[in-house]
Specification:
Layout (H helix, E strand, L loop, with lengths): L5 E4 L8 E7 L3 H8 E3 L13 E8 L5 E10 L10 E7 L2 H11 L5 E2 L4 H8 L5 H12 L3 H11 L2 H25 L9 H30 L1 E6 L6 H9 L17 E7 L2 E7 L9 H16 L2 E7 L6 H8 L5 E7 L10 H8 L3 E4 L8 H13 L14 H20 L5 H19 L5 H9 L6
Parallel strand pairs: 1-7, 8-10, 8-11, 11-12, 12-13
Antiparallel strand pairs: 1-2, 2-6, 3-4, 4-5, 5-6, 9-10
Helix pairs in contact: 4-5, 5-7, 6-7, 6-14, 7-13, 13-14
Bound molecules: guanosine-5'-triphosphate and magnesium ion.
The site of magnesium ion has 6 residues, from helix 8.
Length: about 450
C-alpha cells in the first residue's frame, strides 16, 4: 500500500532523558539522511541495515547543529508499521524535541494523526483490529493484571479464539451451499447435526463473553465513592487507602467540599476512589454545592462505601443517605470502632441495615481495612466465572459485534427446519460478518477511523 511519509513525537512532552521522534513511510530514510550528519565521515544512512543505530547531529538548512541524535532504522516490513521506520532519539528537553520535529516536518513529511502509526500497522496486516486496540490498553493499564490482559490481547488471543468459531461456521455454510447449488449430487445436510454444530458455536461465544467479564474489570477498573454524613472519617479513609495525606482531615464537620479522586490498586483491580463532602442540610452555599456533588458521585459509582460513626451514633442523615442508594454494590463501614464511648450497637445495624455487608473498622488504627479490601474484591467478582488466565477481555465495540453475531446464530437455529436452507446460510453469513468486525476483516472505514481516534499522537 503506497502511503505518504508521517512523523510525530512519540514520547510525552516535557523534560526527560531522551525524546523520540518517529517517522514512517517509503521516503523517510532518504528524508532523514538529508538532515542528519553522522559522526563517521562518509557513512550513508541510506545504506545502513535495518535495526541499526547511528550517532551524529541533526543539522539545519545551513548545516548548523540542531541537536546530537541517535538514529534507529527499521526497514519494512520488519517494523512496527510494516513500512520503513526511523526513530530519532534526541535530548529529552522541550526545545530540542520541538526543534528536531520542526526540522523533520520541513520537507515532504507531514505530522501524523493520533494513532496513525498503529493504524498503518493494521492496514499493512501487522496487527488485527483487536490487537491494535490492545496497544491502547497496554498504554493505559494501571495494574499488573490489567497489563497481562492487554498483553495477551496484543498476542492475538481474541483473534485465535474467534478464528476457531469462524472456521466452523464457514464449514457449516459450505455444506449448506453445496447442497443448495447441486441438489442432485449432494444430499441435504442432516438437520440434527446442523443444530448441534450451531448450538455448540453459540455456547462457545457465550463462554467467551462471560469469561471476558473478569478480565474487563482488571482492565477497566471500578469507581468507588466514599459517602456519609460529615465528620465520620471519609477523608481519613481516603488517605489510609492511598497511603498519603491527600485530603484535609479535621475534627470540624464539613471539612471536605469538593470530590477528591485518586487511583488505588485493590488486589489488581484499578479502583478510582472518590472522597466526598459530608451529606447534610446546610445553609452554607459552598458546602451545599459540595453536597450536590456528593450526590452526583453516588449516582456515577459502581461501589458505594457508606461510613457511619460509632462516636456520634446513628442519625437521620445516615438513614436518608442509605435510602438514596439504588441498585449499587454497597459496603457499610462502622468507623471509629476504637472509641470507648459507643453510640452504635450491632442491634442498631441489624435493625436499619439488615442483610447488607457491614464491616466494623477503625480507620485511625488501620483496623478492618484488609477486610474492606477483600470484601471489595469479592463483591466486584461475585457471580463471575473463576479464571486465572486473563484470556480475553472484549471492549464495547467488540462485544457489540459478538452479541450481534450471536443473534444471527440464534436466528439460524430458530429458522432451522422452517425456512429454506439458503436462508440459514444468510444468517450464518451474517454471523461471520459480525465476528469479522472484531479482527477487522469486515470493518467499514468510519469504524476503523473511530478505533484509532482514541490514540495519542505518536502511537
Ligand atoms: N477515634 C477515631 N477518630 C477518627 C477515626 N477516623 C477519623 N477520625 C477522626 O474524625 C474526624 C473527622 O475525620 P475526617 O476524615 O475529616 O471526616 P470526614 O468524614 O471526611 O468529614 P467531612 O469532610 O467534614 O465530611 C477527624 O478528627 C479524624 O481524626 C477513627 O477510626 N477513630
Ligand atoms: Mg472529609
Amino acid at each position: 500500500m503506497l502511503q505518504d511519509d508521517i512523523a510525530a513525537l512519540s514520547t510525552p512532552p516535557g523534560e526527560g532523558g531522551v525524546a523520540i521522534i518517529r517517522l514512517s513511510g517509503p521516503g523517510v530514510i532518504d528524508h532523514v539522511s538529508k538532515i542528519f550528519r553522522p559522526y563517521s565521515p562518509g557513512l550513508d544512512l541510506k545504506q545502513r541495515p535495518g535495526y541499526s543505530l547511528t550517532l551524529g547531529h541533526m543539522v539545519d538548512a545551513q548545516g548548523l547543529k540542531i541537536d546530537e541524535v541517535l538514529i534507529g532504522l527499521m526497514r519494512g516490513p520488519k517494523s512496527y508499521t510494516g513500512e520503513d521506520v526511523v526513530e530519532i532519539n534526541c535530548h529529552g528537553g522541550v526545545l530540542p524535541a520541538r526543534r528536531c520535529l520542526k526540522r523533520v516536518l520541513d520537507g515532504e513529511v507531514r505530522l501524523a494523526e493520533p494513532g496513525e502509526f498503529t493504524k498503518r500497522a493494521f492496514l499493512n496486516g501487522r496487527l488485527d483490529a483487536s490487537q491494535a486496540e490492545a496497544v491502547i490498553d497496554i498504554i493505559r493499564a494501571k495494574t499488573e493484571q490489567g497489563l497481562r490482559v492487554a498483553l495477551n490481547q496484543l498476542e492475538g488471543r481474541i483473534g485465535q479464539e474467534l478464528q476457531l468459531i469462524e472456521d466452523e461456521l464457514i464449514g457449516i455454510n459450505a455444506a449448506i451451499e453445496a447442497s443448495v447449488d447441486f441438489p442432485d449430487e449432494i444430499e441435504e445436510p442432516d438437520y440434527e447435526e446442523l443444530k448441534g454444530r450451531i448450538t455448540s458455536q453459540i455456547k462457545h461465544i457465550k463462554n467467551l463473553l462471560s469469561s471476558s467479564l473478569r478480565s474487563e474489570i482488571y482492565r477497566d477498573g471500578i469507581k468507588a465513592a466514599i459517602i456519609g454524613k460529615p465528620n465520620v472519617g471519609k477523608s481519613s479513609l481516603l488517605n489510609a487507602l492511598v497511603k498519603q495525606e491527600k485530603a484535609i482531615v479535621t475534627e470540624l464537620p464539613g471539612t471536605t467540599r469538593d470530590v477528591i479522586e485518586d487511583y488505588i490498586n485493590i488486589r489488581g483491580i484499578p479502583v478510582k476512589i472518590m472522597d466526598t463532602a459530608g451529606i447534610r442540610d446546610t445553609d452554607d452555599p459552598v458546602e451545599s454545592i459540595g453536597v450536590q456533588r456528593s450526590r452526583q458521585a453516588i449516582k456515577g459509582a459502581d461501589l458505594i462505601i457508606l461510613l457511619l460513626d460509632v462516636g456520634s451514633g446513628l442519625a437521620k442523615e445516615d438513614i436518608e443517605i442509605f435510602s438514596s442508594i439504588e441498585e449499587q454494590n454497597l459496603i457499610i463501614l462502622v468507623n471509629k470502632d476504637d472509641l470507648a464511648e459507643r453510640k452504635i450497637e450491632p442491634e442498631d445495624i441489624e435493625k436499619h441495615f439488615s442483610g447488607r455487608t457491614v464491616i466494623w473498622v477503625s480507620v485511625k488504627e488501620g483496623q478492618g481495612l484488609e477486610l474492606l479490601e477483600s470484601t471489595i474484591e469479592e463483591m466486584v467478582f461475585s457471580g463471575l466465572l473463576e479464571s486465572e488466565d486473563y484470556e480475553v477481555a472484549f471492549n464495547l465495540r467488540q462485544k457489540r459485534s459478538l452479541e450481534r453475531g450471536l443473534n444471527s446464530l440464534e436466528d439460524a437455529l430458530n429458522n432451522l427446519g422452517t425456512l429454506p436452507l439458503d436462508c440459514l446460510a444468510v444468517d450464518i453469513g451474517g454471523a461471520l460478518q459480525k465476528l469479522g468486525e472484531i479482527s477487522g476483516k469486515s470493518l467499514k472505514e468510519d469504524v476503523i477511523n473511530r478505533i484509532f481516534h482514541d490514540f495519542c499522537i505518536g502511537k
